[in-house]
TrEMBL record:
UniProtKB keywords: Membrane, Transmembrane, Transmembrane helix
UniProt cross-references to InterPro entries, sorted A to Z: CAAX_protease (IPR052710), Rce1/LyrA-like_dom (IPR003675)
Protein name (record): CAAX prenyl protease 2/Lysostaphin resistance protein A-like domain-containing protein
Organism of origin: Bifidobacterium asteroides
Alphabetized GO MF terms: endopeptidase activity
CAAX prenyl protease 2/Lysostaphin resistance protein A-like domain location: 176-255
Amino acid sequence: MQQPNQSSSDSPATESIETGADRQGGPSTAPWSPSSWGAQVRRGVDLQSLYAIVYLVVANLIAGVLNLPSVAAALGIARQPGLGDLLGDLVMLVFLFGTRGQDLLGRGSHPVQYKAQTNPGPAVLIGAILLIMLASSIEIGFTWVVNQGSQALGLVYHSTTSQIAAGQHGFLSPLDTAVLVPIVEELLLRGVVMGRLRPYGRTFAIVTSSFIFACLHGDITQSLFTFLLGLVLGVVAMEYSILWSMALHIFNNLVLADAMMWLTQTVPARTAMMINQGMTLLGLVGGLAVLWLIRGRLADHLRANRSRSGTYRGWISLGLAVLVVLAAINAAQRFSLA
C-alpha cells in the first residue's frame, strides 16, 4: 500500500489547542495542560458515545415497531423477507440526516469528506481488501475459540454471522446488508463520529470510532472483526474519502460475505470447506504480508499523527462506559444453555 497523503495542517503535532477547541464549539482561553485537554477530549467522546447510544436505541425501537403484527401486516413485511430490515435502515438514514444533516451535507464545522485531493491507487485498495480478509480470518479463529469455550461451559453461542446467514432470503435481505447497511454505518461512524473526534488527533479518532463501531454490534466475535474493519475503513476515509470506505465496506458485505456465503451454500460441503479454508489462508498470508510491507510507513504515519499528551484520558468517559455495558449485555444474550 502506498503512503497516504497527509496535510501538515491536520496533524495534531502542529494543530493549536485553540483550533481544536474552536472546532468543538469555540476557542479555549484556558492555559493548556494534559488534564484540561483530557477533560475536553472526554466531553467530545461522551457526546459521540451518547449519540451512538441514541442511534442504537432508535434503531431498536424502529425494529420493534416494524415487527409488530399489525404494522407488519399493514406494510406487507411478513410477505417480503428482508423488507422490514430495509425499511428500518432507510428510517435510520433519515434519522442521521435529520440529526447531523450539516455534517453529512458537507457543511458546518465538521463536514464529511466526500472529495479528496487524491484517490487511492490499486495497491492501496488491494492492500485494504487483504487487511479486511485478515480481520475476517482472525474472527474465524476467535469464533472457534469462543465455541470451544462455550461447549466446555455447557453453553451455545449464537453468532450474528450465523443469524444473518439464516435470514438471507430473496433479494431484499442482501440489498439491505450489502449496500444500505454499509452506507448508513459509514455515514454514522466514519462520517459523523470520526469527523467530530478528528480535532483530537487522526489516530485517536480512527481508533475511538472503530471501538464505538464494535460496541454497536454487541457480539463478542463480530465486534472484534468490526473493530479491525473500522481501523482499515477509518484510515481510508481519513486519508482519502468516505466514498472509498463505503465502497470497501460494500465490497466486504457484498462479495466477501454475501457472495461467498451464497457460493458455499450451493456447492458440495467438501468443496465449501475447501473454499472457506482457502479464503481464510489467503487472508492470513496476504494480510500479514501487507502489514510487513507497510510496517515502516505505518510507523511513520503513527508518529506523524500522534495525539497530544492527555488525549487518551478521554477514553475514561461515562458515555463510552455505558456503551460498553450495553454491548456486554447484548453479547451475553447470545449465549444460551445447551
